């Protein structure tokens, strides 16, 4: 896994650095790269004086802000910091995807390389690397599943702590992401208990109370922000997450190939909000190419003799059901 991890970091770094390494832009907000220390200090205040005439603070983005402070502290420029951060997120997601597969296929092989590569450079990455505060959820998702699966097979607290820590980062960026990520624990539990029979429901409940106890600590900031700024959150959800709104602008097929996000359809006088996604909507060869991984994954589930294929099928159906219901 270490060889694959190093290769993933190198490939991600090269891919990012080939995209104008001296330029940086408003990924999330300029201050995260220009003055991350000031941005971090401001998160300790409930009232945000930098937005209009002042409003309740909802951006407790510790998962993005702290790394920026550390990177800028080493003397990197804002542009270099942004490129390093993007490369780190892309490689983190790919290594995590391979690590989750390794839970069921211990020997590293072609399937792990393909999994990491597709997770790192699929259509979703092209379209939604920005804003990276939300892409962080994507990068952490496979690691959250690894922590859960490993955790229910041991009595150690470390996996529960890792899960709570990562969920805390997800919650400070996008609180609904905590709910969506948690839904995947259901098929993983069913597989581990009833199909693989590698643990019991008692092990699952034992792990859940430990992780839940720690989650009460790591989600404090996100829950507090949601409580004091409930109307702001509700308005954002109505505009960007409401099923009726999103249903007008997307389909299950686009969600299946990683393009179910509503932002790819937004345009203004300057053009599409996500111009990098245009090729996946207007170029016929690119459109067909994005269906290849999804079709190949479905065929692998149908033809493979690996027992874990049943888990992959359940997780795929869970994701498609959620995306169809939401988008």
Structure report:
With 327 residues, the chain is mostly helical. Helix content is 70%, strand content 2%. The protein contains 19 helices and 4 strands. It has helices at 2-17, 31-34, 36-42, 62-73, 78-102, 110-121, 123-128, 132-151, 158-173, 175-183, 185-195, 201-218, 220-228, 230-240, 243-247, 252-256, 279-282, 284-303, 309-326; strands at residues 47-48, 55-56, 267-268, 271-272. It has a two-stranded antiparallel ribbon with strand order 1-2. A two-stranded antiparallel sheet has the order 3-4. Helix 9 runs parallel beside helix 13 (220-228). The longest helix is centred in the first third of the chain and has 25 residues, at 78-102. The radius of gyration is 20 Å and the shape is globular. The mean pLDDT is 85.
In short:
The chain is mainly α and 327 residues long. It is built from 19 helices and four strands. Helix content is 70%, strand content 2%.
């Amino acid at each position: 896994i270490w060889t694959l991890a190093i290769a993933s970091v190198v490939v991600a770094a090269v891919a990012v650095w080939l995209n104008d390494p001296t330029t940086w832009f408003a990924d999330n907000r300029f201050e995260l790269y220009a003055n991350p220390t000031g941005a971090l200090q401001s998160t300790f205040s409930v009232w945000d004086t930098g937005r209009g005439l002042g409003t309740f603070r909802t951006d407790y983005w510790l998962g993005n802000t702290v790394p920026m402070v550390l990177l800028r502290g080493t003397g990197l420029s804002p542009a270099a910091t942004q490129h390093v951060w993007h490369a780190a997120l892309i490689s983190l997601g790919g290594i995590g995807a391979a690590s989750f597969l390794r839970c069921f296929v211990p020997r590293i092989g072609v399937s792990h390389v393909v999994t990491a590569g597709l997770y790192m450079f699929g259509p979703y990455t092209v379209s939604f690397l920005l804003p990276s505060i939300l892409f962080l959820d994507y990068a952490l998702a496979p690691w959250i599943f690894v922590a859960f699966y490993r955790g229910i097979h041991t009595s150690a607290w470390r996996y529960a702590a890792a899960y709570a820590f990562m969920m805390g980062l997800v919650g400070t960026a996008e609180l609904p992401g905590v709910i969506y990520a948690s839904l995947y624990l259901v098929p993983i539990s069913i597989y581990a208990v009833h199909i693989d029979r590698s643990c019991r429901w008692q092990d699952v409940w034992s792990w859940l109370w430990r992780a839940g106890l720690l989650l009460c600590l790591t989600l404090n900031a996100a829950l507090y922000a949601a409580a004091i700024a409930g109307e702001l959150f509700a308005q954002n959800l109505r505009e960007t997450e409401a099923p009726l709104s999103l249903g007008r602008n997307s389909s299950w097929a686009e969600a299946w190939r990683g393009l179910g996000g509503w932002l790819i359809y937004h345009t203004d006088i300057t053009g599409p909000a996500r111009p990098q996604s245009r090729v996946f909507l207007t170029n016929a060869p690119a459109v067909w190419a994005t269906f290849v991984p999804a079709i190949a994954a479905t065929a692998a589930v149908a033809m493979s003799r690996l027992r874990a294929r049943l888990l992959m099928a359940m997780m795929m159906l869970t994701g498609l059901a959620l995306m169809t219901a939401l988008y």
